[in-house]
Amino acid sequence: MLTRIPGWVMIGSVLLAFCAGYINCIAFLGFAGNAVSHVTGNITLMAQLTIERAWYPLWQLTLIVISFLVGAMISGMLLRSEALKLGRQYGLALLIESLLLAMATLLFLNRAYGGEWLASMACGLQNAMVATYSGSVIRTTHLTGIVSDIGAAIGSFMVGEPLRTRQLTLQGAIAGSFFTGALSGGWLFGAIGYAVLLAPALLVGLAGVLYSLMRLERAA
Predict the structure, then answer these.
(1) Cβ atoms within 10 Å, residue 186
(2) Using one digit for the tens of pLDDT, what is the confidence trace for 97-111?
(3) What is the pLDDT of residue 24?
(4) Which positions, given as ranges, span the membrane (predicted)?
(5) In whole angstroms, what is the distance from residue 97 CA to residue 60 CA?
(6) Domain 11-213 CATH assignment equals 1.20.1250
């Protein structure tokens, strides 16, 4: 159970959830209309497309899922643990994510399906990177687990258990930030187009630089 939420955990989780909501909304609204920040819905669609023998869209969705997996693998190679701990190579992971998003933007601008694959890879990297903290699961690219945990915490409180205030604060902030990111991404995409994907790339890259500087300062 969370006893304290360090500022870097709260700020980082909220920022990454905002970026994930932003990216996923643009992917939904784009020329292909596929989700890139989570896997469950895509695998369900893959089953339906298999029944319909719609092989081309099935192939596209399969590559999105594989790309998410590859992103998570990159995170595993860099961080080697699911537990959040100051000092690990989050800065490098964030910079790689930023590069993936920048490359995805260029491909989206050219209406190339590779943009979806790179965006999904970035989300897979991000989701695996932010896994657990003090026994509380932290996911930033989809909200099913977050909403389940919030509901369980409220239900426990209703039958007399102590209210998990800090857990609810963190997870509520993540859910709200994801929604705000999706709202912002959808509105800006309608006004400007795919170029707005550069915003999360820059935000994630800046977060990577700031984390790396903080890590160097603490090591000095």
Answers:
(1) 18
(2) 999 999 999 999 999
(3) 94
(4) 7-36, 56-78, 90-109, 187-213
(5) 21
(6) yes
Question: Is residue 27 within 8 Å of residue 21, measured between CB atoms?
Answer: no
Q: 171 with 75: CB under 8 angstroms? A: no
Question: What's the CA gap between 203 and 124, in Å, rounded?
Answer: 17
**Cα–Cα dist 42/217, whole Å:** 42
DSSP 160-174: TPPP-HHHHHHHHHH
Q: What are the phi and psi torsion angles at 136 (to 5°)?
A: -100, 125
- Look up residue 105 and give its two tokens: 């933007």
* Residue 137, SS3 per DSSP: strand
Whole-model pTM: value is: 0.89
The residue type found at 53 is R
Cross-strand bridge partners of residue 132: 83, 137
Residue 171 and residue 143 in contact, taking contact as beta carbons nearer than 8 Å: no
CA atoms within 13 A on the CB side of 180: 12
Residue 213 has phi, psi (to 5 degrees) of: -65, -40
